[in-house]
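Hey,

The postdoc asked me to send both predictions to you directly instead of through the lab channel. I've kept everything plain text so nothing gets mangled by the mail client. Protein one:
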Amino acid sequence: MGERIVEERGGRAGFAALARIALLVVAVVVGGREVRAQGQMSQPGVPSEINVVENYSTGGLVEIVIPNMATGFQEKCLVYMPFDSLHLGPRPVLVVFHPFGQNHMDAYDDTDLVEECRARGWFLISPLGASKKGFSSLTSQANQEFVIEGVVEAFAPWVDYTRIYGIGFSMGAGDAAAYAARHLDPFDPLFAALFLHTGSMDKAYGWQTNPGTQWIHEFWTGGTPSQVPFEYERVSPIKVDSFTGLLLPGTHLGTNLQHVPNKTYIADDDPNFELKQQAYALVQYQAGFPSGDFAYEFDTTDYSALPLAHTWDTLDQGAALDWLAQRQLRLPDSGRLRVDVDDHQYWWFRVKQDQLGAFTDFDWSVDTAANTVSVTGSENLGGVRIPYSLMGFQPGPLTITTGSADGTSDVFIVSGLGAAPTAVLRNGAPAQQGTHFNYNAVADMLLLYGTPASVDWTVTP
């Protein structure tokens, strides 16, 4: 299925403005000059400035300024573009998420990551994310998404979509994990792996333990954790006890990271105890997953010579990228999904919720070789759309298993059949059109009306 998705990428109308970035960046790097776009405020998403940071023999490092964002928050990003002849063909991309109080230039000023990407011939993208203190907020993620997707699309012929990596430190590690957990559309860039350095994984716990940041969290979420708990949980990979910092039971947003190989790093000398607690709690949560590629490193090196051990400098950044480089995107074929946005694409499913402002959860599996799809154990699910024509099923009948855990009936839409099905069976018996299913010829959609109980549908194209 992964190859199918790669073929379908490109040509997204939403990034028409950013499609010019590649040519602009090349002009800046080669010409060594600053570009200022005209009329940028009337053209959302168009850069107003592209400033040269460094011009290397191997590529160019530029700062891109985008003032007119849909979020209302100006976005800036740092982009390294390799173009030397030693690194031909599609190259990996490293996305760097900065810590609290820093900005997009942190990757250049405080890390070795630009140099590491230069040595490997990788692209590097370091977004501001709307603010130095974004804390994985929806606004911050919207700006990050625009930059990541726009730059990747702009350089699409030179990007290896199966090797897009994320790395973050402190607040940035929490940003990387939250972003990956909420961005699961296989038609957009997906992280093949993450490297997480001592991250803030529970924003409600951060509000509780760091009073100086409470007003920042409340600004982004619209209230305190007790007033708007969902707004905190939807940007937090895990939940920990507000008093002990220990992992709480239950399903957390981080369940969506089961498919993403990731490594958590913590230095023993790091003085930020609350962040170390949260980072380790994520490790504990992932230990409960049925499978996955997760690693953990607790560094006991003496860092007393450093002015502060809560720093990028405790991490061997070259080794971190070596770890990432061994991973390649593999789309999952099953899992438990946690949805926080209505009418949005998650893996193969476009999900409609029964109730907004709450999570939707369900178990799923797809086997294109066996022509089977399963969506069961659903809570707060209104409906699911399955893109039959894009999934690479084999000729013959398709079996869909449905069922809810909350006592509601869900609607399942199979799109792209090309024509009305020749037969629809419900638990082995002919289904009744109008009662059990309908086919919309104009939209080319087959609607299956599920029940709270488990139903096995057999659809013959």
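Protein two:
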Amino acid sequence: MTQATCADLVVDQWERTRKALKAFQNDKLTNEEECTLYEYGLSFDFVEPNTFDDQPIGYWRYQMSWGGPADEIRYHIDEDRTHGFKVEYWYLQWWDGASVHLKGDDKELAMWVFRHMTKRRT
């Protein structure tokens, strides 16, 4: 039996994460277990350029889990700042990883998270 790759799992994992984040949005930052959006994620931070191999540009990261598996939303500001953010959901396992480019309602939900997390930092 072949083990599923991150590419096989990323869409389903995003759907699970999307539902969880939507619950926070619908219930004004608290889910049914009384956990807040700020407690749900492990961290919200800026990943400096060249932190990882082949990563010349920095990005903001809302990290929800780490290790194996890990998942996070990455917010890339385009260099000329004319197109806003490119937003991706990443699902990562040891030596493997895959992403979903978020757009439409999914991107709006991710940007809602970004706005709340950056507001909290100030």
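Summary for protein two, as requested: The CA atoms of residues 76 and 86 lie 5 Å apart.

Thanks,
C.
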